[in-house]
Structure formats: C-alpha cells, structure tokens
Design goal:
Residues 29-127 form the Gnk2-homologous domain. The protein is an alpha+beta fold and 127 residues long. The chain has helices at residues 2-27, 46-61, 92-109, and strands at 31-36, 68-73, 80-86, 116-120, 123-126. It has one domain (29-126): Killer Toxin P4, Chain A. It has three helices and five strands. Strand 4 (116-120) and strand 5 form a beta hairpin. It binds 2-acetamido-2-deoxy-beta-D-glucopyranose (NAG) (4 copies).
C-alpha cells in the first residue's frame, strides 16, 4: 500500500518536473553567436557593478520597450553602456524572455571581458 502511494508521488513529481522542463525550453532563445572583446576587467570592480546595473536595467525594461533599449551606468573609466534589440515581429513577452536569458548567458560566456555582443534568433545584447 505504501509503495503504491510512493509510486503515485513519484509519477506526480515526474510530471511536474517535465512540465517545468518544457517551460524552460520554450523560454530559452535560440543562440546564434557571441564575441567577447580582448579587454578585461577585474572581478568585483566598479566596472563589474556598473555592468550588473546595466544588464539588470536592460532585462527589466525589455517588456515595456518597442524592441530596443539602451542603458548606461557609472563614470569614466568605469562607465558601461549597453543595449538590446529584439526582432520586430516578436511580442514583448518573447522579447523580454530573450533579453533576460541573454543578460545571464553573456556573463557566463564572457565572464571578465569588457565589450561583448551576443546574438540569438530573437534578440541581440551588446555592451
Ligand atoms: C582578440 O585577440 C585575438 C588574438 O590576439 C585576435 O585574433 C582577435 O581579432 C581579437 N579580437 C578583437 C575583438 O579584437
Ligand atoms: C513589465 O514588468 C513589470 C514587472 O514585472 C510589470 O510591473 C509591468 O506591468 C510590465 N509592463 C508591461 C508593459 O508589461
Ligand atoms: C540611448 O540612445 C539614444 C539614441 O541613440 C540616446 O539619445 C540616449 O542618450 C541613450 N540613452 C542612454 C541611457 O544611453
Ligand atoms: C508572444 O508570442 C509567443 C510566441 O509566439 C506566444 O507563445 C505568446 O503567447 C505571446 N504572448 C502574448 C502576450 O501575446
């Protein structure tokens, strides 16, 4: 009896995790390419905190935009300028999904480089 219960719970968790998995796949944009610049910055520097501000500003402004948004943070020499652009036929939900995803992935692909660009089918992000 208890093994039947256990089995039911297992099946329930399995279906829950597969639906979460499907959601992740749908939200994931189609990666095309990226280029990291050869200039690097130091981790935990002023540059990095400005970059974090710019990336979160891009991600949080993607839903109200017309598919384009730019942001800056800080003062020279640690000033960071960033922008994103979405494909014009996409709605703001899809646009934001892509920008949110890109803003995380770009820092994984180019962890300490200044000046990066990443392209997806749906959007590009540049700083
Ligand atoms: C970075 O350096 C490599 C080799 O030094 C060079 O081939 C490449 O073109 C440089 N990239 C940029 C974006 O300047
Ligand atoms: C954008 O997202 C914010 C926070 O998630 C929300 O409050 C706002 O209504 C959204 N704007 C649009 C145009 O969807
Ligand atoms: C964004 O771009 C526009 C037009 O290119 C420019 O006028 C504006 O100053 C930029 N905004 C920021 C925050 O850099
Ligand atoms: C936006 O487009 C996606 C993909 O075509 C679609 O699944 C989604 O329902 C659309 N969302 C809105 C709010 O129109």
């Amino acid at each position: 009896m208890s093994s039947v219960k256990f089995f039911m719970i297992f099946v329930f968790l399995l279906s829950l995790s597969s639906s979460l998995f499907t959601f992740t796949i749908e939200a994931k944009p189609n990666y095309l390419n990226n280029v990291c610049s050869n200039n690097t910055f130091t981790r935990n520097s002023a540059y990095q905190s400005n970059l974090n501000l710019v990336l979160s500003s891009l991600a949080s402004n993607a839903n109200g935009s017309d598919g384009f948004f730019n942001a800056t943070a800080g003062q020279n020499p640690n000033r960071v300028y960033g922008l994103f652009q979405c494909r014009s036929d996409l709605n703001t939900t899809t646009c934001q999904d892509c920008v949110v995803y890109a803003s995380t992935e770009v820092t994984q692909r180019c962890p300490t480089q200044k000046g990066n660009i990443i392209w997806y089918d749906e959007c590009l992000l540049h700083y």
